[in-house]
Amino acid sequence: MDIELILINISGNDRPGVTSALTEILAKYDAQILDIGQADIHHYLSLGILFKTTSDVSGDIMKDLLFKAYELNVKIRFSPISLDAYEEWVGMQGKDRWIITILGRRLTARHIALVTDEIARQGLNIDGIQRLTGRMPLRENEQPQSKSCVEFSVRGNPADRSSMQDRFMKIAAAEEFDISLQEDNVYRRCRRLVCFDMDSTLIETEVIDELAIRAGVGDQVKAITERAMRGEIDFCESFRERVALLKGLDESVMREIAENLPITEGVGRMMEVLKRTGYKTAILSGGFTYFGNYLKQKFGIDYVYANELEIVNGKLTGRYVGDIVDGKRKAELLRIIAQVENINIAQTIAVGDGANDLPMLATAGLGIAFHAKPKVKQTAQQSISTIGLDGVLYFLGFKDSFISQ
């Protein structure tokens, strides 16, 4: 009796019991299932099973499967697989795996074609594709804040990973969608700590600019802020200059600003999911602790590290207390929190938008530039520019069907 390997492909309208009925036949003949995969698109089933059997019963198995498929009103196709082809396939198991995630308000066939063309050009093979977001409405005005995300599981060693990363980022920028390339390793599957910048990340403003407007020095401070975020001047120097301009501002203004902070789209949804699934969260900000602590209370954030403004007799003095939280300090704090929580640095995530976020983005296992300045986007390995901050959840592999539970 010779060993035979047979691949069956089943397609047709999905219904309960199809997989059960077919695998019962294989069980009847003691066939060994070597691989199995199933997808359902709009109630249309596509099922593949690769099994091993012997030549004396293979004919009976295929006959019974054929009759059962007719009874279930599905199509079935049989393909013999050579032992050499199977061994070659098994040999692929040792190659690296990658997760490529694309997301945006809407994804088009062109987006997918451009990404998959680069995957093929790099000599990689797509093992699986899944949609992480819910079903898309046909009319855009039905859901203006809609999101679309597709995740590719890819196997192989890229011909040039750096070139692939650069190509992905250029495609995403030109076509207005977002893309993430991550190695599919044990750390990617068990991230545990997410550290966020605050201003222009968790909130849609720079708080120091809001304070400056109330102090009547808005234009001066805003100009310094923009130069610092672009990396044109040293953050610490710019921080001292801006804080000095706030001298004399009443403390009550801070409370009024905090109560009216414009929260970035998706923050509430993201924080609820991260908290529910056991992630630790932190704010590492070059802004101010007063506002960071407000967000900590609002969203249940675990850690806040930012700058402390000096207040005397209810007025800002134009000075600060303690060390400045700049880019270098953010990276140090990320490492410290990871050590305290006994978390491997590869299990950490950092999210930010400005030049002073680059050190922590580079330190974290996954660094994400969020609606970032050009210099930051050019440097970061991952970026989100088309949707809200809950896009981070898709880079972690969460599906809408789970998030909504």
Topology, element by element:
Blueprint lengths: L2 E11 L4 H11 L3 E10 L2 E11 H18 L2 E7 L1 H9 L5 E8 L4 H13 L3 E7 L16 E8 L5 H15 L2 E6 L9 E4 L10 H9 L2 H12 L5 H10 L7 H7 L8 H10 L3 E9 H11 L3 E10 L2 E7 L5 H14 L7 E5 L5 H6 L2 E5 L3 H6 L2 E3 L6 H5 L4 H4 L2
Parallel strand pairs: 9-10, 9-13, 10-11, 13-14, 14-15
Antiparallel strand pairs: 1-3, 1-4, 2-3, 5-7, 5-8, 6-7, 11-12
Report on the architecture of this protein.
The chain has 405 residues and is α/β, with parallel strands linked by helices. It has helices at residues 18-28, 55-72, 83-91, 109-121, 161-175, 207-215, 218-229, 235-244, 252-258, 267-276, 289-299, 327-340, 358-363, 374-379, 391-395, 400-403, and strands at residues 3-13, 32-41, 44-54, 75-81, 97-104, 125-131, 148-155, 178-183, 193-196, 280-288, 303-312, 315-321, 348-352, 366-370, 382-384. The chain has 16 helices and 15 strands. The chain starts with a strand and ends with a helix.
Helical amount: 25-40%
Largest sheet: 7 strands, mixed
Give start-end ranges of low-pLDDT stretches: none
* Gap between N and C termini: 51 Å
Helix count, DSSP H or I runs of 4 or more residues:
16
Q: In terms of structural class, how would the helical and strand content be classed?
A: alpha/beta
Mean pLDDT: 92
Strand portion, in percent? 25-35%
Question: Number of DSSP strands?
Answer: 15
How are the strands of the biggest sheet laid out side by side? 12-11-10-9-13-14-15
Principal-axis shape equals elongated
What's the Cα radius of gyration? 27 Å
